[in-house]
Design goal:
alpha+beta, elongated, 6-stranded mixed sheet
């Protein structure tokens, strides 16, 4: 039996789709731990005031408008550092945009574009009092950020 070129293309597409799905769902299939596990994410041992830690930075909201940590006082803040040409930064921004749609005005979403002193992506979770709750010096999952926000919202009600 001789295969036609269209059959070979169809088989190739199926193989690519299967490998793509395996890559997307690899954590669930192979029970890998996400980069947000306790071993890899770093909680803050001593309290750090976010306004001091991130002083003199050009902070914006996700729409690119100037903002500040002080302006968002009274609600949890997700502050991310990113670069346009960094693929993980773009993934982090997509995650934050999804969370913004989910959480609305309950949480402030701020960013720093092209930071000079931090690797990207870097995300800080800041509580309602302006203290750094947790730092992620790498791409962090939506689930880990939601977990942190839930803790802050429950703790501060």
């Amino acid at each position: 039996m001789k295969m036609k070129n269209t059959d070979i293309v169809k088989i190739g597409i199926v193989v690519i789709l299967v490998f793509g799905l395996l890559w997307v769902f690899r954590g669930m299939i192979f029970e890998e731990e996400s980069p947000g596990t306790d071993e890899e994410r770093r909680g803050i041992d001593e309290e750090i005031r976010a306004a001091e830690a991130f002083d003199n930075l050009a902070i914006e909201n996700l729409e690119g408008e100037p903002s500040s940590i002080e302006e968002q006082a009274g609600k949890p803040i997700l502050l991310t550092f990113w670069e346009e040409d960094n693929e993980e930064s773009q993934q982090q921004l997509t995650i934050l945009n999804n969370l913004q749609l989910l959480l609305g005005d309950e949480v402030a979403f701020l960013s720093v574009f092209e930071p000079e002193d931090r690797s990207v992506p870097y995300t800080a979770v800041i509580d309602r009092e302006g203290m750094v709750f947790r730092e992620y010096p790498e791409l962090v999952t939506e689930e880990d950020l939601l977990s942190d926000i839930e803790v802050l919202l429950e703790r501060e009600e």
